[in-house]
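Look over this record as teaching material.
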Amino acid sequence: MGKVFWCFFSKKNCFLAVPCLLTACGLGPAYVRPNLDVPTAYRASPHSTHDIWPDKDWWKGFGSPDLNALIAEAKIANFDIQAAVARVKQADAQLGVTGAPLLPALTGNADQTWTHESYRNASLSLPRNNTYKEGREYQLNAGISYELDLWGRLRAQQESAAASALYSRFDQETVALTVVTSVATTWFNALADQDRLAVLARNIHDAQSILSAIQARRDAGTVSQLDVRQQATLVAGLLTQVPPLRSDLEQQLNGLGILTGHPPESVTAKPGTLTNLSLPELEPGLPLQILERRPDVQAAEANLVAANANLKVARANFFPQISLTGSGGWQSAAFTTLTGPGGVVGTVATSLVQPLFDNGKLTNQFAQTTAQREELVAKYRKAVVQAFTDVDNAMVAYRYATEQEKLERQAVDTAQGAADVARAQLLGGTIDLVAALQAQNALYTDEDLLVQARLARFQALLSLYKAMGGGWQRSDVSAPVGTVFNGIL
């Protein structure tokens, strides 16, 4: 860069100034996607030979009409989505602002000047009177200004704004995917709370019926008061678990309010059960494919493209800015003669602004922009690795949640059989109360864990949907007006 400046300031090399500058015309770091460490297969499914990507409306695969209605409402009324849409509009407007200097700017104005003069006749021999003189002057002017973008500074600014406009679109899709999965997560949590309350209610009913039977046997003198107290303690312990579950259920429903853009009082959906819902099958393809299906990865790259363009701007700032201005118009004492030859006026000017000494401002700005680009390269690579990690983690979680649910279902079946036997023997007086209490506790614990395992399976599947981009593809997003994807990303 120092040699370029020497071309401007050295008389000896003045004839080299033009070719030196022209070689800089259009120069700059062309965007190249950073080298990425892309695995050939996912760690969680190294031998997968097929892929099943989510549909556009993937949430419908769960078979919950209430969930479908909640998501449809959220996609319209959610505040975060509305804010993201507004950011897209802002970015598009900024793109128009940034692109405006690439074309000449034309201004116009019209003036009318009116003059009035009066004087008194001071002669003693003539009657005194006042004399008036009026005049009108009309002027129409038009001006044009244009900056010669020899070094590509203005085009680089437009390139940066276009990449930012794309970023806003990818960010909007990321926000929408996050909102949809949040609605589904909240709804499934509410369903799980309802299922856990149902399990708790059944066990409380059974425990209370056994307590009544033991109390009857105490009245008959066949059991002690201690036996009654032990069963009563079990009932009381089960009852204490109702309030926190109801509290969490109400909070989950309240959470649907903010997600759907309404006060909690407007949420009318009533939770049912997770048991009747479906779990659609998913299978991610090659890791490289995920880069085109994750809007957050595309957003990170769009930010990097914008930073790359800003680096071009920072380089171009070292070179002079050359502007052309011109003005022309008509001036006349009578409006009807404005177009006459004698009324034409005009000026043409050229200006050149070259930084001579700025105490290192431009150099430091260039260093700052370079460092910002390096930061965004690291963030982009992290977004890519995070995408692979999210998919692997979701697949692992879903696999083991599925296995856990299967094992918990077997445990519930076993515990149910043991509880049924213990209940019959307890009522028949052939088993001690401690063994019966243990069988009851085991059944309740396994049933509650089964609901939680099923919820974990739903949550893992939601995570996999989100990790796979929720059915999104880059081709689903329209490029900003006047740009094309291939020209930016």
User: Anything to note?
Assistant: Confidence is low (pLDDT under 50) at residues 1-24. The domain at 31-103+149-319+356-487 is CATH 1.20.1600.10 (Outer membrane efflux proteins (OEP)). Residues 314 and 366 are 5 Å apart (CA to CA). The chain has three domains: 1-27, 31-103+149-319+356-487, 111-148+321-353.
